[in-house]
Write a structure and sequence with these properties.
Helices cover about 55% and strands about 0% of the residues. By secondary structure, the chain is mostly helical. The mean pLDDT is about 75.
Length: about 80
């Protein structure tokens, strides 16, 4: 009475497939797998040792990043084009 047989699980699986459809279940599985992979990659990156900012590898990675423009007033820039007469 406490455990289900294989027939109970097959009937439950059949009902789930009928309710959700195979395509939606496939998408849910792919999304869940991508989330788990991203989590594992994030945990692996978080445990990597900190890099010395003065090392040649760190300087090379900083050289490839574009400079960030800092605006003093942080106001939006109006870029309305005007015709010359």
């Amino acid at each position: 009475m406490g455990s289900f047989s294989i027939w109970h699980w097959l009937i439950v699986l059949l009902i789930v497939v009928l309710v959700f459809g195979t395509k939606k279940l496939k998408n849910i599985g792919a999304d869940l797998g991508g989330a788990v992979k991203g989590f594992k990659d994030g945990m692996k990156d978080g445990s990597a040792p900190a890099e010395d900012p003065h090392s040649p590898a760190a300087q090379a990675s900083q050289a490839n990043t574009p400079p960030v423009a800092h605006h003093a007033d942080k106001a939006p820039i109006d870029v309305e084009a005007k015709q010359k007469v």
